[in-house]
Write a structure and sequence with these properties.
The chain contains ten helices and five strands; from the N terminus they run E-H-E-H-E-H-E-H-E-H-H-H-H-H-H. By secondary structure, it is of the alpha/beta class. It has a five-stranded parallel beta sheet with strand order 2-1-3-4-5, with helices on both faces. This is Two component transcriptional regulator, LuxR family.
Length: 212
């Protein structure tokens, strides 16, 4: 008999987390071996449990989904990670795949697509719903740097989000174990690339693109 697919779920909405858990545990070939309500907890439990598949919400406290994928891939490069998000956050799709996510699923589609998505990424294949695949195809066709967000590296995007949320350079530096000077360098690059003037502009930019 084949062993069960061990799954970890990370989502900061408890009701959504329990709903996902229920869907998975109704499948005879899967089991949920851990859950997390924020990015920091997700990283800890994924590294401890070493599941077969991880499902990570894109928007979580402490570390967002992109940060979780980025950090986990350094330790568990072969772990299939499914990104879970709201439909309006599709600007994250391309970046999530770029940094190592194996699939992407919207919350409105979990009831019909989640099980298939888990099985597919567990088998080593990508899972991209048709509408999401179209987003990526369009982005590739347009070429890089057609959207302001594409001007930023993954780390710059992460720093931008934290600045937009009101965190200081010191707080951001502590989160990434970097120097305050390094974070300020990222901040200056962000301002220059996006032609912004200050942190208030960064916040407005992040809100306009629904990054926060």
């Amino acid at each position: 008999m084949n062993s069960l697919i061990k799954v970890i779920i990370a989502d900061d909405h408890y009701i959504m987390l329990e709903g996902l858990k229920r869907i998975i545990e109704e499948c005879p070939d899967m089991e949920v071996v851990g859950t997390a309500l924020d990015g920091k907890e997700a990283i800890k439990i994924i590294l401890e449990k070493k599941p077969d598949v991880a499902i990570v919400d894109i928007s979580m406290p402490h570390y967002d989904g992109l940060e979780v994928v980025d950090m986990i891939k350094k330790h568990l490069p072969k772990l299939p990670i499914l990104i879970l998000t709201m439909h309006e956050e599709e600007q994250y799709v391309f970046r999530a795949i770029e940094i190592g996510a194996m699939g992407y699923i919207t919350k409105k589609a979990v009831s019909t697509q989640l099980v298939d998505a888990i099985r597919k990424v567990h088998a080593g294949k990508r899972y991209l719903p048709e509408d999401v695949a179209e987003v990526i195809a369009l982005k590739i066709a347009q070429g890089k740097n057609k959207s302001p967000i594409d001007l930023l590296s993954t780390r710059e995007l992460q720093v931008l989000k934290r600045i937009a949320l009101g965190q200081t350079n010191r707080e951001i530096a502590e989160a990434y174990n970097l120097s305050v000077k390094t974070i300020d360098t990222y901040r200056q690059r962000i301002l220059k690339k996006l032609k912004l003037r200050n942190n208030a502009d960064i916040s407005r930019f992040a809100i306009s693109l629904k990054l926060i």
